Amino acid sequence: MLGVALHGRAKVRRHGAVKTHIVLKLTDAAVTARELDRHILDLVADPEAGDAAFDRVAVEVFRYQYAANAPYRALCDRVGRTPQTVSGWRDIPAISAASFGDARLACFSPQRARLRFVSSGTTRGGGRASVHEMDTTALYDASLERQFRRCVMPDRDRMRMLFLVPAFSEAPESSLAYMCFRLFERCATSGGFYVRSGRLEGAALSAALRASEEPTLVFGTALAFVHFLDGCRDEGARFALPAGSRLIETGGFKGRSRSVEPQRFYEAISQTFGVPLELCGSEYGMCELSSQWYDAQLSDGLAGRPLRSWVKVGPPWTRFLVVDPVTMEPVADGREGLLSVFDPCNRGSVAAVLTADVVRRQADGFLYLGRSPAAPPKGCSISADAMLESHA
Questions:
Q1: Is 316 contained in some domain?
Q2: pTM of the predicted model, to two decimals?
Q3: Is 125 among the domain residues?
Q4: Is residue 26 part of a domain?
Q5: How many CB atoms lie within 10 A of CB 53?
Q6: CA atoms lying within 13 Å on the CB side of residue 264
Q7: Burial class (CB in 10 A: 0-12, 13-18, 19+), 39
Q8: Total number of domains constituting the chain
Q9: Coil vs helix vs strand at 271
Q10: What angle do CA 250, 224, 358 make, to 5 degrees?
Q11: CA 10/CA 307 separation, integer angstroms
């Protein structure tokens, strides 16, 4: 197990008592981070690692974050969870995703940030934008590619990809744009991005769809798909993508004014693109997390297994709980609650994140039921959608 190098003592007076915190020196923190990243990448590379190995890495991540992330340490101290009292991932306190807009939740100096993702959704609800900084791209890249291949492309090394999102060069603080850029770079044979300067290039996308002579992935936000479906309906256009093609929607509508009933929406994109319904699914991700969840029916349909329709499955190197929104205790299986995630690839920030999304555990994943009524709309897709709305 990794031994976190702890140096220096900071005394903090709490209710008349003096509490001593141990903090990391900058140089030791960098060395510790590199070693810890190797442990996390080993976990990502081994889907059969099991619960004991996961708990070991989770506790290492917690010790590092407790030492290096002062706002998170303050929360842990308030609830009485410290490296001395935590023995597994379930013991580690989760921080609200909204807190990424309230404080800088990073384990390194601003000068070391390699990626800076901003979720604009909270600002539209009257709160602050979430900011998620990373000091390395290695963990995010490894997680996104391995999970994507596992859930969306288990049968192919590369395929044609058409993205209904802005290119990363146009949206450099969008986690969605970065994710799609990396997937295109590592997994695509051809294709491109069809939201430019805030506009969905429907004519160019239609031409690309008609030109597809190999299995094609179409990946976009729900609102971008709806804009394209509107144009296809007006023109009476339909496509017949080659066998093995698949569609991924991300973001849903998350409380937005433009909404379509989910079953109707998926039937419409299936019929318009000429892709079987079981190969149409959604991705669940957020600015504050480094890993993604996908609908299980895609990999089930490709493998010929019974379909787990609309059940979102996460990477083996993550864990989740469904918790009561008042007590924060896990609810019984089959009951609704808030999704709480432990994602070790969030090594540079906080690995335990409480979302405002209502879910229900099912099979080995969860059914996404919507945003908590008390939460403003947000998500990594909303910044991309806002560009389309401004030009609608």
A1: no
A2: 0.87
A3: no
A4: yes
A5: 15
A6: 5
A7: middle
A8: 2
A9: helix
A10: 35
A11: 54
Residue identified by tokens 């290096």 is 68
Structural domain span for residue 225: 138-309+375-390
Closest by CA position to 100, among listed 346, 370, 344, 337: 346
- In this structure, are 188 and 272 located in the same domain? yes
Same domain for 156 and 29: no
Report d(CA 167, CA 78) in Å as an integer.
42
Question: Looking at residue 310, what DSSP letter applies?
Answer: T
Distances (CA, A) of 192 to 32, 238, 389: 39, 20, 21
d(CA 258, CA 255): 8
Q: Which of 90, 121, 156 represents a domain boundary (last residue)? A: 90
Same domain, 161 and 73: no
- Judge if 161 and 26 occupy the same domain: no
**Hey, what are 356's tokens?**
């405002």
DSSP letter for each residue of 242-255 = PTT-EEEEES--TT
Burial of 129 (0-12, 13-18, 19+ CB in 10 A): middle
Whether residue 206 is found in the same domain as residue 295: yes
What contacts 268, CB < 8 A, 6 or more positions away?
Answer: 229, 260
Question: What 3 state SS string does 66-89 have?
Answer: HHHCHHHHHHHHHCCCCCCCCCCH
Q: Per-residue pLDDT tens for 8-60?
A: 444 444 444 445 455 555 555 666 899 999 999 999 999 899 999 999 999 99
Q: Which of 102-106, 197-201, 260-264, 290-294 has the lowest mean pLDDT?
A: 260-264
